[in-house]
């Protein structure tokens, strides 16, 4: 692995989600929910309290931002320019989204690099997603023009409907003759209903029965699962620069009517109430975009320890924006060695989870509880034709056609993610380590046999060193600063009862390694390359 160069932080814009029919509380919230975090009792250090996105970004020793939220104001009606423009252009300081010259001089001082901005679209009128998108495009224009230091576009984190606002901003910039790809660097969406919300397809009287819902009619229309606007994004912006973070913990979502609605939508689409496949509000397939990378986190849509208030969202976003390396994991070959009795109708599921070294959070999560494992497969080598499932992701469908999760990309791509070898800056580590949890299960869809058999479950530690990739079954030979190196596999062989270590093979297409155990064998392939 090459030594990464220091990176200059770009401006970061945070965009909130849907506020409901009554937005009084949202307008009174200074940081639009991005200052709310979660406490994890029983943990210690940085894993004990997550302060919220804004405060963590300002405290981070690696990605430290400056809060510039008060520099720009948002108003329902146009405001005039102040008496002292302080050399700022008149069109920047008058209108409904405007820069305040005195605060800008004090806080930004013409350098917007590493600044953090909370976009307050609920201060604008009328209540329409297109209006919010226009306002966001205006904010980005202000950021681009107010600083003297050049940067390659802003970064954006958008929760829920905020991602639809970002889409409208990209559309507006394109229509105005400005190149969105030059103004926006990367985007992370947290549980955004790109393909709509499934239970919007329920009978109209069920939705209209919610008090005050007509106040948000335009916003709710943006959740229509029949719309195909998400396909337009690729005309203005490379989907590879959008990371979709998909929540899976529907059980923890506090709005029970939404969870019930998703189950009803699943009944209409799949013919069963057995699955939810959502974060409590947004279906897993709806939160994804064709051609865009995705990751799963076991969090619910909103509230405490959710997509927007958990540490996972912050850490994943920071690595996507500033990470040193892109990592991909493929399943080259596989064989399920047990299960599939003569009388049942067996289906197999494969799930993995990825956890980086030194931290207590996952970059990627799959499990039976999350209802997002790859499958179902009926062939023991997991090579079932997935063409029909791929069609689900390539067409304008907002709901799944079965309890299935398709591969992350061609050649059975299991996971694509971004890591940062500088994540522990007080260490002189020269390696990269992440834990790979593998889970294989069997389900009898006829109901004759057991419905929850665990075929295989094991943890591996993947350690990348300069010119070598080592696989461990335990942490014993993972020194605190990456002391492991060539010859380690032979040293571990004498103590194989406690841990095993073996070297992956370099193939020109990545590093391949085998995993074997009772019930399941597989060959995996890992590619590690410098991030863009």
Which features characterize this protein?
6-stranded antiparallel sheet; alpha/beta; 532 residues; 21% helix; 7-stranded parallel sheet; globular; single chain; 13 helices
Structural account:
With about 525 residues, the chain is of the alpha/beta class. A hairpin with a 4-residue loop joins strand 20 and strand 21. Helix 4 packs across helix 5.
Quick summary:
This protein is of the alpha/beta class and 532 residues long. It has helices at 24-28, 53-59, 101-107, 129-146, 162-175, 180-183, 204-208, 217-221, 233-236, 256-270, 311-322, 387-394, 488-493, and strands spanning 12-15, 38-39, 49-50, 66-67, 72-79, 95-99, 115-119, 154-159, 184-190, 242-247, 294-297, 325-336, 346-356, 374-377, 413-419, 432-444, 453-465, 468-472, 501-503, 505-506, 511-517, 520-530.
């Amino acid at each position: 692995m090459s030594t990464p160069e220091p990176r200059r932080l770009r401006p970061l814009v945070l965009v909130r989600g849907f506020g409901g029919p009554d937005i009084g509380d949202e307008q009174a919230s200074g940081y639009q929910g991005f200052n709310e975090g979660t406490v994890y009792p029983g943990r210690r250090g940085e894993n004990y309290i997550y302060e919220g996105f804004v405060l963590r970004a300002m405290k981070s020793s690696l990605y430290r931002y400056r809060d510039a939220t008060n520099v720009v104001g948002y108003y329902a009606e146009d405001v005039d320019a102040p008496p002292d423009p302080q050399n700022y252009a008149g069109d920047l300081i008058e209108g409904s989204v405007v820069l305040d010259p005195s605060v800008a001089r004090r806080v930004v001082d013409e350098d917007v690099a590493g600044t953090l901005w909370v976009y307050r679209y609920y201060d604008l009128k009328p209540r329409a997603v297109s209006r919010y998108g226009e306002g966001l495009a205006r904010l980005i224009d202000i950021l681009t023009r107010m600083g003297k230091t050049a940067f390659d576009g802003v970064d954006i984190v958008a929760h829920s409907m905020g991602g639809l606002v970002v889409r409208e901003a990209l559309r507006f910039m394109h229509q105005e003759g400005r190149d969105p790809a030059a103004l926006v660097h990367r985007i992370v969406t947290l549980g955004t209903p790109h393909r709509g919300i499934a239970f919007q397809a329920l009978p109209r009287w069920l939705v209209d029965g919610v008090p005050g819902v007509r106040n948000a009619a335009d916003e709710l229309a943006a959740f229509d699962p029949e719309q195909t606007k998400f396909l337009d994004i690729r005309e203005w912006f490379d989907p590879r620069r959008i990371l979709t973070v998909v929540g899976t913990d529907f059980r923890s979502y506090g709005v029970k009517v939404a969870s019930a609605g998703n189950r009803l939508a699943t009944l209409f689409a799949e013919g069963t109430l057995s699955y939810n496949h959502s974060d409590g509000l947004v279906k897993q397939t709806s939160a994804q975009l064709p051609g865009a990378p995705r990751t799963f986190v076991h969090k619910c849509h909103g509230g405490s320890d959710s997509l927007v208030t958990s540490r996972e969202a912050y850490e994943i976003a920071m690595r996507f924006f500033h990470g040193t390396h892109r990592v991909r994991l493929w399943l080259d070959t596989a064989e399920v060695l047990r299960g599939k009795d003569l009388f049942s109708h067996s289906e197999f599921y494969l799930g993995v989870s990825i956890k980086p070294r030194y931290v207590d959070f996952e970059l990627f999560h799959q499990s039976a509880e999350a209802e997002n494992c790859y499958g179902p497969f009926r062939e023991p080598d997991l090579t079932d034709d997935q063409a029909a499932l791929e069609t689900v992701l390539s067409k304008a469908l907002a709901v799944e056609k079965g309890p299935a999760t398709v591969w992350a990309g061609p050649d059975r791509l299991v996971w694509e993610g971004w890591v940062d070898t500088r994540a522990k800056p007080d260490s002189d580590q020269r390696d990269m380590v992440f834990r790979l949890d593998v889970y294989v299960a069997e389900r009898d869809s006829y109901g004759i046999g057991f419905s929850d058999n665990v075929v295989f479950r094991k943890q591996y530690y993947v350690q990348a060193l300069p010119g070598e990739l080592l696989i461990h079954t335990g942490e014993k030979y993972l020194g605190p600063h990456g002391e492991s190196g060539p010859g380690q596999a032979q040293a571990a062989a004498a103590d194989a009862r406690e841990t095993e270590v073996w070297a992956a093979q370099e193939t020109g297409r990545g590093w391949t390694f085998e995993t074997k155990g009772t019930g399941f064998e597989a060959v995996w392939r890992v590619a590690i390359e410098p991030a863009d």
